[in-house]
Amino acid sequence: MIQQGTGLQEFKLENGQSVHGARKGDYVMYVDGSTAQIITGAGQVNNDVALVGSLLSNGDEIINTPQDGLVFVAREGESMVKDFLPSIAD
Fold first, then answer.
1. What are the E-state strand segments in the chain?
2. pLDDT tens column, 3-13
3. Whether 47 contacts 8, CB under 8 Å
């Protein structure tokens, strides 16, 4: 669960709750109370929004999202920005 999203985008979830999207630098809180920082996102040009596939400081990866309103489309033959979900080695 994201502690508090700092993204500019606001989403209304199925349960009616409004939340801000998470970004690179925000924290995920686990059920046991531990936390990890989001370390990759959609790149600066995309406000570093966190995505399914974003990596966390503890080696985990975001695998789902409660929102369904924002998607990124990768088109064949078109490159994504260099800092879009970079590998840790980048």
1. 10-12, 18-20, 27-29, 35-37
2. 788 888 888 88
3. yes
d(CA 38, CA 52): 11
State the maximum Cα–Cα separation within the chain, in Å, rounded to a whole number: 43
Condensed to tens digits (0 to 9), the pLDDT of residues 44-86 reads 999 999 999 999 999 999 999 888 777 888 899 998 889 999 8
For residue 11, report the phi and psi dihedrals to the nearest 5 degrees: -120, 145
Phi, psi of 35 (to 5 degrees): -130, 160
Residue 90 lies in a domain: no
* Per-residue confidence (pLDDT) for residue 89, from 0 to 100: 52
Residue-range definition of the domain harbouring residue 2: 1-85
Q: Helix (H, G, I), strand (E, B), or coil: what is residue 51?
A: coil
Instruction: Report the domain count for the chain.
Output: 1
Work out the number of other CB atoms within 10 angstroms of the CB of residue 51: 21
pTM, 2 dp: 0.85
